[in-house]
Structures are given as structure tokens and as C-alpha cells.
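Thought: the user asked what dTDP-glucose 4,6-dehydratase looks like in 3D. I have the sequence; next I should run the structure tool and report back without guessing.
Action: structure_tool
Action Input:
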Amino acid sequence: MTNLNRSQAAEAAEDAGSNASPNPTLGEVVAARFHRRDLLRGALAVGAISAVVAPRALAAAQGQTSPFPFRELPAGSDERHHVAEGHEAEVLIRWGDPVLPGAPVFDPRNQTPEAQAQQFGYNNDFIGFFPMPGAQDPAGHGLLVVNHEYTNEELMFPGLGRQDGKAGFAGMSRDLVGIEMAAHGGSVLEVKRVDGRWQVVPDSRYARRITATTPMTLTGPAAGSERLRTKADPEGRQVLGMINNCAGGTTPWGTWLTCEENINYYFGGKLAGDSPEARNHKRLGMPGNLYAWGRFHDRFDLEAEPNEPNRFGWVVEIDPFDPSSVPKKRTAMGRFKHEGAAGILAGDGRYVVFQGDDERFDYVYRFVTEAKVDLQDKAANRDILDRGTLSVARFDADGRGTWLPLVFGEGPLTPENGFRDQADVLVETRRAADLLGATKMDRPEDVEANPKTGKVYVMLTNNAKRKTDQVDAANPRPDNRFGHIVEISPDRRDYAAPGFGWEVLVRCGDPNIAAVGATFSSATTKDGWFGMPDNCSVDGLGRLWVATDGNSAGRTGRTDGIWAMETEGAGRGTGKHFFQVPAGAEMCGPYFTPDDTTFFVAVQHPGEADEEDPKAEPATFEKPATRWPDFDPNLPPRPSVVAITRRGGGRVGT
Ligand code: FEO
Ligand code: CA
Ligand code: CA
Ligand code: CA
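Observation:
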């Protein structure tokens, strides 16, 4: 396992949490639709695609032009980042840079938990931007919120290498764990564009670091449940920290939603055999035992504190404009491995948040608030996310779909099935969704609405474990290594409607390898296709941008990055390469300023080894795959946020 990088170790750990529920994969009926729909669309035969999707030449002849007129970036892999011609991509902040006033200078050979807690954390993931109220240039001055998802000890600490749970994390110490805990969580930064260049405002009164020890409140229906109570918190309402915050969202009332994903990795120890939490913890792959935290902190040891895991796996809401505000874990939105929580206003003013549960064979969720959002009085929405309806998606073979509400007492969510109240339904969201017959998806990541078209896009990153007899209409490929994107069309363009239509927008991977079965439009160049869609963003023009996770020289002949993705008209299904990360990195966090003149992206874990390259050595602090962004032989690679702008100004990607 020491040769495995974090992703591989994660996959191994995930197996324990895989969905073992007997939900149907839809069988023959689905297979019938799979063949009919996909053959019609030419999806099974690459050569047939052009018969269905008009090639670019035809589009041009019809007077249609690409919504992405920028010159495409060649795809490849090297130690640096690259952006499409005509754009600048500058590093804004790196792991270890100061966040709080007085933060010590980054010194990775002498790092301490105290220093790390004042500096920018590791593995930046979700990014959100909030314009500064009253600013002269609200698109050039605001707060940037950034998730710090996880840590790579082999790249962060000198002389350590990958630590192995089976070997008792022999190299780890209380201090190293303390640094890891301080490098998790999130950062709030005041940022400003000065003479065209973005910079972090030093010593800002908004600056904040949130870590794995920041006090938080549990709110909503599960708060106070006996299953959330621990020795340190007999009320079940106060929790220390947030962990593995992957993607997220920003709300119209000015708050940051940050989502706890692979929470199982942090827990170790052996749960008592007769624990009432055994089934619950197993469904989440608990304990994942990928970090040594339980060796030094009892609350991360299942034997000592069997309820602590129930206090993680939530959506956390944070007011970035008030550095003293207490983050709130919104239990009404469910507990699972949340990828993100991207929201949009429904026509009637309620807030609708789409959420993916990133695990093979897990689900797509939607939360709809009970109350309407008050856009005139932001404070009136303070606890709006505590009341509402959480639903899970069923994708039917006929191209229709239904949101199935997870409500205690309805359908199978009753005491006979072990649910005593809504708190139980929420703590065990996955099991409740199993019982409702939700559709098992190929790792749902970001789910985002496009306000210009009324459609919703679901990134499904991959699932090599799906067998041929497990394919269904919404997950049509067995051994799905490259993922796909599903497009949801809510009934009557109402995001809160109970029903929707849907179709597969694109199956990802190399369209030139017939066996892959990719369905990019024939206008897509050799640089324009990608695998493993993960995060996404919709800009002000309604254009879809996709960030990927898992492309590499060994796997797809290209690193991860940003690809533009056409969704409308003759060019639908056309990918176009825009940004390339340095070797070993994953692309996260894509987020536009309100005027689309800046596109913030997060370069996560630069320097990890290429897991598909048999010659690649394990990447370490001493021998990383790149030393981006400093290229200083004395410094390890550093996860960093990059600001992309168009040279000479204007909308990015035009
Ligand atoms: Fe944190 Fe779904 O990746
Ligand atoms: Ca997103
Ligand atoms: Ca990711
Ligand atoms: Ca991912």
C-alpha cells in the first residue's frame, strides 16, 4: 500500500463502503432502452456519431459559431500549468502562504500545527467568490473562500513517505497529525485586483482559517439526536471541525456551503461488535483508516467514540463576512460523501441545492427549502437550510426521472426498517435512499444548474466496478473508466418539480478507441476530449466548463484540466481544452467572478505519482513529479489557487 498514491488507497478503502443494497439495475427494460436510444444516437459506434451530431463544418455552413471561440490548448503532460492562448493564469495563493495576520513564513522543514493554522491549507478544492458589498469594482474585489480537502503526508513532510494504516502509521507523530488537522478545512481570503493582477489583501479583517478543530454547531432535524452525542458533547450539538471538504456552493444570501466528503478516511479503531452503529458505519466505509488521527485523538477512534463519525458527512454553512460566526452543519441536507452543494432559486423563490454522493453506485440528491429566499433581507435566510425536503434521484429507462423524498414515516422509512425519526433518516441517508429505490450512479460529483437553459448537469466521474449486468440507462457503460455527464431537464423548467427528463450529454474518454464508446461530437479535436469529469461551472453566458480528476500521461495522455463543453445546438457534445494542470495534479474549484472576467481554479496535489505509469516511482517530498509552482529545489510542490484572466480584459474563454 505504500506504493499506492492517495487515490488508489482511497479506492481500496472505498470498497468497504460500496453500495450493497439490492436496488435493481433496471434489467431488461433498461437494456432495451439502452440499445434503442444509444444506437439511435450513434453512441455505440463512433463512426456513426457524425450522422447524428452535426460536424463543425455543417454548423459553420448553417451560420452557427462556437460559443467557445478561444484557440484550443494542446493537451499533454509536463511539470507546468498551461492556459489557452490569449489568457493569463497566475498563482494567487499557495499552500503555506499567510492567511491570518502575523502568520509565520512558510518553512516546510520546520512546520508546526500553530504555523499551519495561520497559513493557507493543503489541497485547495472548492472556490467561491463573493463580491465586496459597496466595492467600486465588485468583480475585482471580494472574498474568496477555499476548501482544503485533504493532505498528502508523503509530499508535505520531509523524509516520511506514504504512511500505512496497516503498519500503524509508524512515521506519524502527534505534531504531524496536528499539522494535517490544521491543513484541512477552509480559508477565507480578501482578494483584490490591482492594476490587472489579483492579490490577497494582507491582514484583512475577513481573513479566516477553519480547520479540523474549529468549533461548529450541528443544526436541523438531526441536531441533538442521541446518535450525535459523544463524551465531549453530551448534547449532540457541538462538533470540532470539518474534514475532507471537497466541493461546495455559494448562496444568494452570501454564505459558503462546504461539503464533507470522504469522512471515513480519518477514523480508525475497531467498532464494538454489538454497536448499533455497525450497519451505518459500514455503509460509509467506516473506518477508512487512511490517516493516523485516531492514534492521537480518541474521537477519531471508533472504539473510544462510536458516534463521532455521525457528526461528519454534512454540508457546512459559513458566513464569510463574519469571521467570528460559528459554522453550521446543516443536517437537513443529509449525511453522505457530499461532493458539492450547488444551488439555484426555484421559480417560486425556494432554494434548490443539488448534491452528488461521490462513491461508486451511490446517488444524486436534491434539497428544496421549505421557505422562500428573501433577497431583500439576507439575514432572514440565516437558517433557511434547516427546513426543507431532501430527495434522491431515480432515473428511469424511458428518459424520465423522479425525485424521491426522504421523509420519516413515508414509504419504507419507518421503525420497521430501523428509522425512529427524521434524525435517523438523515444520519443514514444512504440506507434510506437504498430503500427508496434510487438509481445507483457512477460516482456523482458536481451537480449544477444552468439558469440560461433550465437544465442541470451531473458529473459522473467513473466506475470501473460496474459489471455488464449492472448497466442501466443512466449509467450505460460497464467498466466505466472515463465517466459521463447526465443532463437533467426539470419539468416545466421548475428546479423544485418532482419529475424531470434526462439524457446522457456525453460519455467521456478517447473517441478514437472504439471500445471506449465515447460520444464527444465529431467536431471535438484530439485535445478536446477528456476523461473523468469531476467539478463544473456554468458561466454568465450559460456555458458549461468541466474540471477533471484522474487524467494522466499514463491513462489518457494528458493531465487534468478544464475543458469547455458545448451543450446546445449543432455543437452539442463538443469538448475544447482550456487549461492544463502540472503533472500529478487534479483540477478543482472552477469559479467565475460575476462578470466572467476572472476564472479561479484550484490545482490540487501537484506532484503525485502517475498511478497508470508502471515506471513511476512513489512521489515524495524529496522526489515529487513536479515542484510546481515555485520550482525551487528546496521546496515541495504546493497546491495553489490560480486566477485566469483574458489578456487585455474581457470575458474569459471568448
Ligand atoms: Fe473530493 Fe469527489 O472528489
Ligand atoms: Ca462547481
Ligand atoms: Ca475532486
Ligand atoms: Ca473526483
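Thought: the tool returned a structure. Summarizing for the user.
Final Answer: Structure for dTDP-glucose 4,6-dehydratase predicted. Confidence is low (pLDDT under 50) at residues 24-59. The pocket of calcium ion (ligand 4) is lined by residues 445, 461, 534, 549 (CB under 6 Å).
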